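Deliverable D5.2: sample structural annotation.
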Amino acid sequence: MNEALLHTIWKYKLLGQTQFIGSKKENIELISIGEQNQDSGPDFFNSKIKINDIILVGNVEIHVKTSDWLKHHHQHDKAYDNIVLHVVFEHDTDLSQNEKFNVSVLELKNYIKPALLEQYSQLQLSKQTVHCGKSITTVPYIIWNTWLDRLAVSRIEQKTLYVEHLFEFCQYSHEDTLYLLLFRSFGFKINNDAFELLGKSIAYSTLKKYADHTVQIEALLFGIAGLLDELFEDKYPKQLQNEFEFLKHKHLLVPIKKELWKFSKTRPANFPTIRIAQLASLIGKQQSLYHLIEQKPNLKTIQLFFEIEPNQYWNSHYKFDVESEENLKYFGEKAFQNVVINTIVPYLFFMSKHNTNNDFLEYALDLLSQLPAEINTKTKEFMKLGVKTDNALESQAQIYLLDNFCSKKACLHCNVAEFLLKSSMK
């Protein structure tokens, strides 16, 4: 037994009744549990309790044993002087403070059903990645989907913390922030930091000056990336070198270390050279991504924006001077979905927060619901259990559930476990 379980039992009324007998044989009726306190002080505020014929409104403190009151030194804290009920699993001692303030003690040991404790034990002792296992599929649709919606929002809000960081770096420029966020997403995890550093090494306004000259944008990006610092045989990289030499001095640019780029353990289509070429094509468009999403376009319109054609050189190359089989380097479906999930949606949440416009929040959630569910090691854990996942909104929620609840055995804070515990009482 632990306090967290007792808090859950009290909060969700898992005792199955509201009438009890206190330690001094007094009648206790639970009218309202009150509000759970997440900070220091009594566990529940503004509870409404009827003791015999007297209705009391005040705070409730919960312990495994009555003597825990002394272990926690509540006897020296005046914040605990006004409790109306002391709830314990086991009443092991009488307290002078309870006597002084005439506080009733409610022992729960004989009121908690064994089936509930057994269900809780199964959750805690489970060795499965998702501790509730196949029982998760017994959760009613409305409960499961409402919980997923909340988790998806939490997942996206978690991502907006990094957007806040970039926003400060960009001196509160929305367009520049989205530009950096887009750069970072083109790293597709393995090169995220290198791409972000590349974006920070040249202002977006500088790149947009060359919107009509994609080759110069390519020269700037490949040059600052440190990838033009070699002797080349092919005409194309030599042309980029010449362009960059001029532009580097004109804009006082300093290349980053080419050793930052990771080519190993990644598919050729995801090589940083290919992603940089695609970025150059994207930045060369007359309209910026920021001004596009500001208009809340449909998903198809956003996808058309990402229909880009890098320099033809890359159709037969993955690296400079290394010819490969002819293959168009378009921006793939999976890559597009990744950018929407990890760049556009978090940024829309960020915009809704700063502009106090819930339309952007609802628009972001709608975009997620139109994307197919992600299939990765985390979402596969739910697939194994027979959980049907219809879209990216749900898969993002599952990732958050696994990372923040299942992996931490935080079942008592999960709506799935709440349902299972309640069901065990029937």
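Annotation notes: The radius of gyration is 29 Å. The mean pLDDT is 93.
The annotation will be released with the project's public dataset once the embargo ends.
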